[in-house]
Amino acid sequence: MSNISTIATYLARFSGQLQPMLEKVQGMDRRTFLLETAALLALTSCSEPSGKAGMAPMISFKPSGVPVVKRSPRQLLAECKVRTMFMPKSSPLRRRSSRMKPRFITMHNTENPSADAMQHARALNNGALRCNWHYTVDPYVTMQHIPLNETGRHADRGGPGDMYSIGIEMCEKRGQSIVKTFDRAAKLAAYNMYAHDIPLRNVVPHYYWTGKRCPHLLLDNGKPGFKWSWFISRVDYYYRCIS
């Protein structure tokens, strides 16, 4: 009942928005309506299987006005310049992995100003890091570390962010163009949307899973805002180029 009361209190704070709906409900007082609505919401949330990712929130953004330059999926992938350098199967991280059908794409910043994509690939292969992900992007290349049908450990310690999402780390090496890195990462996200039938709303920041301030260079005051909307507009543009 405590959860129901909490939800009812939340709904009550928005009573002005609920008023037109309440006026249409015949034979039911305000408190009863709120409590029954709260109970329905609670039951709905409980019906989602444990560990299963829910629907991501829609992101408001202004679509790019740049004319679409048509590309085939293969052409867009070529622009991402993906190089495969898989971690050893003997790696403890890969031994703990599970099979995955991607439903989300999770964007990160490396928060490491001293390393590019290749240096991150070497660190993963040498077992120097306690987490792993699918791609690392810099202005010149995209390094792929694990297959896309395999889970990584990059979002939420084995939660739905790891179980259902492709992890993309964006480098921020000192002296390299972060704008070019973001642009290549947007192309990579768009290609994987196409390849795995992932909707735009499921391209999310690491923040979505845990509230962590990541990717910090694309957040405003630690949360998705104007910068994240700009990035999503780039992903949308490249997706429209191939769809």
Separation, N- and C-terminal Cα atoms:
48 Å
- Element-level helix/strand string: HHHHEHEHEEHEHEHH
Question: What is the makeup of the main sheet?
Answer: 6 strands, mixed
Number of strands: 6
The strand order across the widest sheet is 1-4-3-5-2-6
Low-confidence stretches: 1-51
Secondary-structure-derived class: alpha/beta
Structural shape: globular
The share of residues in extended strands comes to 5-15%
Helical residue percent band: 40-55%
Number of helices: 10
Q: Radius of gyration in whole Å, from Cα?
A: 21 Å
Mean pLDDT: 83
Q: What's a quick, concise take on this entry?
A:
The protein is α/β, with parallel strands linked by helices and 243 residues long. 43% of the residues lie in helices and 10% in strands. Residues 1-51 have low confidence and may be disordered.
What does this structure look like?
- This protein is α/β, with parallel strands linked by helices and 243 residues long.
- The protein contains ten helices and six strands.
- The chain has helices at residues 2-13, 15-24, 30-46, 73-80, 92-95, 117-125, 160-164, 178-196, 207-210, 226-242, and strands at residues 82-84, 104-109, 135-137, 142-144, 165-170, 203-205.
- The chain has a six-stranded mixed beta sheet with strand order 1-4-3-5-2-6, with helices on both faces.
- β3 and β4 (142-144) form a beta hairpin.
- α1 (2-13) packs across α3 (30-46), α4 (73-80) runs antiparallel to α8 (178-196) and α8 (178-196) crosses α10.
- The longest helix is centred in the C-terminal third of the chain and has 19 residues, at 178-196.
- The termini are far apart.
- Residues 1-51 have low confidence and may be disordered.
